Amino acid sequence: MKFLLFFITVIIAFFGGCAPSIDNAKGGCYLINDGHKCDCALTTDECSDVLGIWTDRCDCGASSSCGEGDAFTHDEKDEVSTTTVNATCEEEWVYLNLSDKTSVSPNNPEDSQEWDLAFQRFKIKSNGGISGTGNVQVAVVTNTDFNELEEAPSSGYLTDAEDSDDEDEDPDYPFLAPNAWYSYDEDTHILTPKDQIYVVQSISGDYFKIQLVEYYDDAGTSGYPQFNWASVAAPTD
Asked: Which residue, among 198, 118, 116, 97, has the nearest Cα to 152 in the 3D structure?
């Protein structure tokens, strides 16, 4: 009975007087399960770990850039591209064709030969497995310098799969499972890219090496993954 009363009290507090309010427009709360995302709809007098949803105050002065401008910005140097993605939208994916270095808008992403990778905040999916019919495969390469990797591995490729018995409810995208492309700091709620390389076999059959290097823009706003990438030779084995 005591537990039931406690649970009812928590629910009332959550949806009632202590529930998040947009009245306090000066600050929001970081979502601890979305990599340092400042959610201004979750403003409270004190941000705390309520039901494991949010924690810590954050600034909501800037407006959202979701859907504004180009989804992908490319810089080229010595045959290596550095791409910054505006993946700030919470519900929408942005789609990239690696061979053409173009943003695409497939009508039916699950049955499209237009895209290789898609981005939504920290999530990255590929056009293969449960996500699409493009036969895109992804392999993780560790303990190798990005500039020294010239040939794609001959094994270790994965495709997007249904969610396994893990801590989240997301599908097992090779960029997220079994090991995510980032490390998460529980104290600062910051995502830091790991020192590893992903090799992607694209819809065209070409191979590309990709290394995530950033998740925040210059202002510290999350949802801007940045990666270095270049083509590599097909496996010889």
From this structure: 198
pLDDT digits (tens, 9 = 90+) for 196-221: 999 999 999 999 999 999 999 998 99
Residue 35 and residue 180: Cα distance in Å, rounded?
Answer: 12
DSSP state of 188: T
Helix boundaries (H) for the chain: 2-15
Q: For residue 8, give the amino acid letter.
A: I
Tell me which DSSP letter residue 2 carries: H
**Contacts with 204 (C-beta within 8 Å, 6 or more apart), sequence order:** 98, 99
Asked if residues 190 and 198 have their Cβ atoms less than 8 Å apart, the reply is: no
Query: Is residue 78 domain-shared with residue 27, that is, in the same domain?
Result: no
- For residue 102, the SS3 value is strand
Q: How far apart are CA 236 and CA 70, in angstroms?
A: 37
SS (H, E, C) 4-59: HHHHHHHHHHHHCCCCCCCCCCCEEEEECCCCCEEEHHHCCCCCCCCCCCEEEEEE
Which domain, by its residues, includes 9? 2-59
Q: Are residues 171 and 206 in the same domain?
A: yes
Would you give the distance in Å from CA 179 to the centre of its chain?
13
Give the model confidence (pLDDT) of 123-176 as tens digits.
999 999 999 999 999 999 999 999 999 999 999 999 999 988 776 678 999 999
